[in-house]
């Protein structure tokens, strides 16, 4: 039996410290309807606390506050914005244990992984505190020599940031930090399943010196009713969304009315290709990270293991041995590496996908079933011999199920890897450098992990191609998602002299 590493008193302290209202114009308050949303611990099914359930009028009030604060925030110096973000980073690091516990309680992942997310999420604050002072333009002579061109950047204006439940902190910092660094104000709409981390983070930002109205947070069960009026409001200048592709597509339709700037971080269906010359130790290690991190609930999770037929048996046997050693339990328990899934629907989906694959000839090597008892757990699972046409190959599993199929040569491996509407990340394991370079040019993906199982890093441009989205978060590119480019032409200063 695993044992809890946190006491009931610690849980209570962390949850009770979270402000549960809407954060608008620097003040916390209830929803105008008085309604609330229960936040549930997926490991137990128990309600942790209730938070405000915003109405469309509350959403518009938050936009009013962001619009009112925009000019003054844009007028602050880049150094000032940088230092505010740096203070937020320092505060987050001081409180890393509390943020990690809060995240585990509302989302379920093991505490170690939540600590990892605090580090990863915090890095966006540090990175963009550094980027805030490095926005530069350019000056040049036009080809005809008749004028001088100046290119400058300025903040796009008030932004709506919509985030998912699977990385409650990092998906928020990945948007809020570059927006603030660029001089934009924001309304944040966190996922209704995991609002607590964002609310606690908003309080931390205020403490770090973010002025009233620069960051506003609305939690709601009526995402569409609250967000759509903002998206159609000409005062909003940018929408940044992380979530599923169908919702992203709906938001793009709404955003077209005002020709709104958008960034879309959408779903994935990552291939994980193991070639015959791969270092199998590294491939197995990479597979465990790429599949089981975040209980498999990551847009970057490896969804399709495509393994060369000559190494498939050995790879499968080694992976199965590792998966049998994973311990399932509440994320707050000692030694747990696989926590609960977010809800019953997620468990049903994983189960359905396994049954469909088996119905088409796949073999369950280990796992394959929901776990009885309270909480929403699914056994860590390996299925091999997954046949073409299986639903698991075209659907984001979002659960701890590792699905293996085989290929014959490089051309077939690339064809299978690209056989998806998505293109967020791919993983490939090979010792052949030239092959690695060919893959970088041929795989239809925004990111490639070559002999590694995790690619996310604040210093790198994160994002996808095809139905996985538009735009990039992090890296030198991330701040430009929140900046307009303005070009100024002036006459040749030497003309007539
Ligand atoms: P989701 O699309 O259901 O919800 C995401 C957010 O959008 C939530 O805050 C939700 O309340 C809100 N939302 C839903 N419908 C809306 C509407 N009509 N108008 C406005 N807001 C709306 O996704 P989810 O289940 O929370 O997250 C999982 C999905 O997110 C997966 O597909 C995953 O791949 C994707 N994801 C992508 C990335 C990335 O960087 N590409 C990162 C994490 C998660």
3D architecture notes:
The protein has helices at 8-16, 56-75, 78-94, 96-107, 111-131, 170-182, 196-208, 223-231, 245-256, 280-292, 312-324, 344-359, 410-418, 433-442; strands at 22-24, 27-29, 36-40, 47-52, 138-141, 147-155, 159-162, 186-189, 215-217, 238-242, 261-265, 270-274, 302-308, 363-366, 381-384, 401-407, 422-423, 425-429, 447-450, 465-466, 469-470, 483-491. The longest helix is centred in the first third of the chain and has 21 residues, at 111-131. The protein has 14 helices and 22 strands. The mean pLDDT is 97. Strand 18 (425-429), helix 14 (433-442) and strand 19 (447-450) form a beta-alpha-beta unit. The strands form six sheets. Strands 14-15-16-13-12-18-19 form a seven-stranded mixed beta sheet, sandwiched between helices. A six-stranded mixed beta sheet has the order 9-8-7-10-11-21, with helices on both faces. The protein has a three-stranded antiparallel beta sheet with strand order 5-6-22, with no helix packed on it. The chain is α/β, with parallel strands linked by helices. It starts with 7 loop residues before the first helix and ends in a 6-residue tail after the last strand. The site of nicotinamide-adenine-dinucleotide (NAD) has 28 residues, from helix 8 and helix 9.
Task: Provide keyphrases for this structure.
7-stranded mixed beta sheet, binds nicotinamide-adenine-dinucleotide, 6-stranded mixed beta sheet, 497 residues, 14 helices, 22 strands, 21% strand, alpha/beta
């Amino acid at each position: 039996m695993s044992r809890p590493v946190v006491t009931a008193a610690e849980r209570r302290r962390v949850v009770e410290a979270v402000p549960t209202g809407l954060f608008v114009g620097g003040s916390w308050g209830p929803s105008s309807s008085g309604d609330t949303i229960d936040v549930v611990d997926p490991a137990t099914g128990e309600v942790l606390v209730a938070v405000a359930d915003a109405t469309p009028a509350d959403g518009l009030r938050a936009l009013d506050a962001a619009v009112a604060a925009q000019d003054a925030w844009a007028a602050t110096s880049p150094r000032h914005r940088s230092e505010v973000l740096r203070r937020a980073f320092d505060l987050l690091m001081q409180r890393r244990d509390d943020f990690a516990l809060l995240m585990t309680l509302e989302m379920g992942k093991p505490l170690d992984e939540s600590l990892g997310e605090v580090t990863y999420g915090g890095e966006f604050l540090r990175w963009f505190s550094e980027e805030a002072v490095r926005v530069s333009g350019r000056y040049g002579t036009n080809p005809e020599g008749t004028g001088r061109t100046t290119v400058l950047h300025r903040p796009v204006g008030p932004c709506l940031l919509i985030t998912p439940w699977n990385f409650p902190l990092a998906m928020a910092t990945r948007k809020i930090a570059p927006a603030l660094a660029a001089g934009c104000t924001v309304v944040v709409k966190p996922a209704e399943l995991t609002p607590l981390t964002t609310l606690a983070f908003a309080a931390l930002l205020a403490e770090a010196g973010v002025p009233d109205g620069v960051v506003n947070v609305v939690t709601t069960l009526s995402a569409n009713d609250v967000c759509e009026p903002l998206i159609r409001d000409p005062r909003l200048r940018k929408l940044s969304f992380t979530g599923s592709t169908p919702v992203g597509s709906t938001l793009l339709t709404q955003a077209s009315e005002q020709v709104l700037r958008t960034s879309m971080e959408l779903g994935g269906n990552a291939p994980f290709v193991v070639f015959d010359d791969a270092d199998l130790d590294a491939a197995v290690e990479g597979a465990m990270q790429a599949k089981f991190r975040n209980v498999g609930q990551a847009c970057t999770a490896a969804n399709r293991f495509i393994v060369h037929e000559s190494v498939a048996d050995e790879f499968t046997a080694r992976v199965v041995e590792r998966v049998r050693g994973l311990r399932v339990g509440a994320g707050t328990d000692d030694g747990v590496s696989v926590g609960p899934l977010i809800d019953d629907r997620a468990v049903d989906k994983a189960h359905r996908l396994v049954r469909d694959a088996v119905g088409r000839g796949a073999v369950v090597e280990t796992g394959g079933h929901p776990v009885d008892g309270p909480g929403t757990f699914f056994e860590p699972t390996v299925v091999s011999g997954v046949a073409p046409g299986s639903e698991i190959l075209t659907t984001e599993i979002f659960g701890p199920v590792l699905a293996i199929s085989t290929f014959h040569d490089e051309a077939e491996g690339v064809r299978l890897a690209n056989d998806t509407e998505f293109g967020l990340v791919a993983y490939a394991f090979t010792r052949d450098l030239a092959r690695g370079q060919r893959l970088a040019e041929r795989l239809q993906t925004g990111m490639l992990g070559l002999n590694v199982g995790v690619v996310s890093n604040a210093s790198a441009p994160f994002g996808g191609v095809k139905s996985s989205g538009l735009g990039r978060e992090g890296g030198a590119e991330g701040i430009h998602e929140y900046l307009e480019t303005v070009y100024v032409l002036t006459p040749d200063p030497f003309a007539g002299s």
